[in-house]
């Protein structure tokens, strides 16, 4: 199975070895048709290879600070314009989940009402008939997510390949490679992929987010951050029925609006994004427009939580960074690492702490320029340096902490696009002094 998957990937991507350089050559002569054909094949190949490849490209589309804007624009279509599956599969899955009489029980869904198609599921707009507290029949607009056919099989196939490659690399008798502990790192990503194959997990995540963010219905109506409500009795491993986010628009539409109102909207959304990051870690794809701009989080399939000990570690680390105490931050990372070899080296802890102090000082030296804003500070670059120092000195980052770093990188790219003048320290203070949550 692993050999077949590796062969499939090689065959699928091999045409790009010819198409890409040819496209660059011909485009330089003023002919763009070949470039368009190359991009079309690239998107086709990514989608053909399955959800793992699509997820990677979706992440790339959010990082305009790392990749050229034209590449991000091309890849952004993968967020909701993947290959749609057939109506026959949708009906068969609905019957499997809710029985042959799902329409008689109140779910009215039409073939043409597709809202979008992502890497894991296809989303429809539908109507759900229910009884209110008084016994009257009401019709509620809902969104229906239906997993693509053979999704679990395709994901497991990629998992087998990743685990085989990680195991092979780990068997190489080189200390630097073994220190990466690729099998355990791969397992973290594997756990994330597996969650994508069960919409019941997404429903649980949505309920938990709603419990974390909303004290009651009134609080929910005033919140700047919206999580759709899963509909009771309409949740299955392959199908999820939830509240429809009405009058919602892709957040990408505000990134290209250069009007005064567009700049105002981006500033508001940037602040909301940072508030959200202080509260929880999630994926943002849409926002709602009204008298007040709100963020609507539609995909809660990938979520995680930190235990109290990890929360304390993260808060202490952030506090040391904000207070320009990189040496303390470095020592905390060594002391609280679950796996580290730094203490076995002579002077290793002191050297590691000194490296961290250097990185943090560079971070704070940006105050002399444009201040500690998302536009002037490249968080991704600084975090990459931190990870590189950890690798050199053998200080392993816990998988949950790594997930926090990745979430910060994703939100950083989006906030920089929305409002590069948002100040990092102002945003971090509530979390550092202990009134934020993770």
TrEMBL record:
Residues 78-328 form the ABC1 atypical kinase-like domain. This is ABC1 atypical kinase-like domain-containing protein. It comes from Fistulifera solaris (Oleaginous diatom).
């Amino acid at each position: 199975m692993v050999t077949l998957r590796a062969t499939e990937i090689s065959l699928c991507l091999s045409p790009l070895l010819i198409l890409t350089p040819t496209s660059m050559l011909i485009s330089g002569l003023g002919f763009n048709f070949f470039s368009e054909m190359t991009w079309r094949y690239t998107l086709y190949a990514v989608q053909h290879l399955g959800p793992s490849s699509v997820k990677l490209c979706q992440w790339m589309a959010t990082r305009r600070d790392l990749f050229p804007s034209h590449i991000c624009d091309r890849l952004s279509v993968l967020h909701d314009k993947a290959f749609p599956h057939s109506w026959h599969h949708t009906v068969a899955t609905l019957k499997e989940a809710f029985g042959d009489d799902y329409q008689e029980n109140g779910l009215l869904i039409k073939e043409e009402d597709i809202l979008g198609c992502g890497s894991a599921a296809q989303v429809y707009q539908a109507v759900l008939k229910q009884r209110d507290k008084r016994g009257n029949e009401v019709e509620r607009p809902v969104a229906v997510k239906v997993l693509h056919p053979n999704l679990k099989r395709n994901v497991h196939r990629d998992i087998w390949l990743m685990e085989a490659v990680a195991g092979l690399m780990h068997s190489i008798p080189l200390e630097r490679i073994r220190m990466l502990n690729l099998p355990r790192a791969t397992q973290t990503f594997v756990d994330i992929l597996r969650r994508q194959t069960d919409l019941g997990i997404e429903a649980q995540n949505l309920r938990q987010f709603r419990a974390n963010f909303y004290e009651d219905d009134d609080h929910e109506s005033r919140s700047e951050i919206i999580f759709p409500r899963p509909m009771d009795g309409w949740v299955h491993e392959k199908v999820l029925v939830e509240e429809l986010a009405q009058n919602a628009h892709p957040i990408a539409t505000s990134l290209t609006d250069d009007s005064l109102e567009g700049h105002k909207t981006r500033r508001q959304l940037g602040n909301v994004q940072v508030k959200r990051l202080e509260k929880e870690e999630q994926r943002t794809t849409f926002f709602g427009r009204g008298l007040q701009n709100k963020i609507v989080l539609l995909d809660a399939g990938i979520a995680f939580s930190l235990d109290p000990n990890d929360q304390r570690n993260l808060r202490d680390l952030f506090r040391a960074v904000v207070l320009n105490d990189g040496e303390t931050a470095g020592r905390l990372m060594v002391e609280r690492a679950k796996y580290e070899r730094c203490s076995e080296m002579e002077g290793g802890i002191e050297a590691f702490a000194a490296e961290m102090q250097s990185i943090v000082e560079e971070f704070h030296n940006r105050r002399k320029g444009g201040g500690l804003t998302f536009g002037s500070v490249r968080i991704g670059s600084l975090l990459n340096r931190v990870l590189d120092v950890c690798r050199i000195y053998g200080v392993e980052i816990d998988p949950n902490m790594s997930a926090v770093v990745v979430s910060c990188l994703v939100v950083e790219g989006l906030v920089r696009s929305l409002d590069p003048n948002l100040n990092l320290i102002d945003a971090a203070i509530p979390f550092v002094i202990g009134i934020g949550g993770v």
